[in-house]
Amino acid sequence: MKTLSETLARDGNNFDLIRLCAALAVMLGHSYGICGARSFELLVRFTHRESFGSLAVYAFFLISGLLVSASYARQSSPTRFVGLRAARIWPGAIVCAMFTALVVGPLFTSIPLAEYFSNPATYRWLAHNMSLIGSVGGSLPGVFDRNRLGFVVNGAVTTLPIELECYAIILIAGTLGLGANSRRGTIIVVGVVGVIFAYFVKHPPVHITLGGFFVKRILYSFYPVPFFLLGMLLYSFRTRVILHWLPALSLLVGYVALRFTPMGTILLYPAFAYGVLWLASLRQLRWLKPKYDYSYGIYLYGFVIQQTIVAVNPTLSNYLSVAIAIPITVVLAALSWHILERPCLIWMHARHRSADLQAAEVSPA
């Protein structure tokens, strides 16, 4: 039995393993739509509500709510928090967008290359997907136009603007003195944002889209944002949250027994969230922890690689297609991590250490 606080300690959890599994689950979930599978996936048939992909995204947002809150609590300034978040998100997203528009696009467009590169839509797509502002992941001129989901070149990245807006909640809360180290402040922030979110879900804003912040995603039965807010709340109560197999098993059994009733719908999400945290605390899974964090790269490149495979051979089953796509995606994710993501994070941390040393040298103490 461990507390959430103990689980959040460095090298004391399996969050990297869970995120890796979640990224692969997203690819499996997307394969049904990309390949036009004739049957619903196993998890949809079981829950009648959620898929591998939707639950994986909920796991990402729950873990982000916890770890990004912890990141803000560790930083000495909002500027450092922004720098680290930017170093984690944008370099990988920018290079993925360039790879998609400037490598995959020319190879798989059905229009002449001169027309592709002279089309303003190509550069609008590239600008949006590099900035992660506004609508991302849409279509490129002529690219995958024979694919079932050709209208979205890279559907996975559509959640990234929402993720960034969730980071902004933590930043604004911390700037107002209601940061992750304040339980009362976190309760206020989560409560206010929760009420605003619930209102705009029922009454969608006309002129403010925020990248789909208030929109239920296609084939989802719930929303990712509440899981991020739950992660924020759990972080503030981390010393009091006990992770044990008995509540996890009880919630799972309760859900399975009642899954065809309204109570089953209510139990699904608490059972899922607590189960994710309990799995993160298990020492028995520690030996499976990946040495490197390829999950973000897999999430970035998985969808577009699956699209290319379907474009080359549209007769493949979704299982065979995803089996081919996974090793290719993992290679791209590894390159992204070792050449880009990790060096950017190391550079940003080094800048912060250098600033700390300079401050210490000029300090009166």
Structure explained in plain terms:
- By secondary structure, the protein is an all-alpha fold.
- The chain has one domain (2-356).
- The chain is 68% helix and 1% strand.
- The chain has 14 helices and two strands.
- It has helices at 4-7, 15-35, 42-47, 52-74, 78-108, 113-118, 120-131, 160-175, 183-202, 225-236, 245-258, 262-281, 295-312, 318-362; strands at residues 2-3, 242-243.
- A two-stranded antiparallel sheet has the order 1-2.
- Helix 2 packs antiparallel against helix 14.
- The relative contact order is 0.17.
- The mean pLDDT is 91.
Backbone shape: globular
Structural class: mainly alpha
Order of helices and strands: EHHHHHHHHHHEHHHH
Fraction in beta strands: under 5%
Whole-number tally of structural domains:
1
> Major sheet: order of its strands?
1-2
Provide the low-confidence segments as ranges. none
Chain oligomer state: single chain
| Topology, number of strands | 2
Q: What would you report as the Rg, rounded to the nearest angstrom?
A: 21 Å
Distance between the termini: 43 Å
Number of helices: 14
Considering DSSP H and I runs of 4 or more, what fraction of the residues is helical? 55-70%
Mean pLDDT: 91
Question: Main β-sheet, in a few words?
Answer: 2 strands, antiparallel
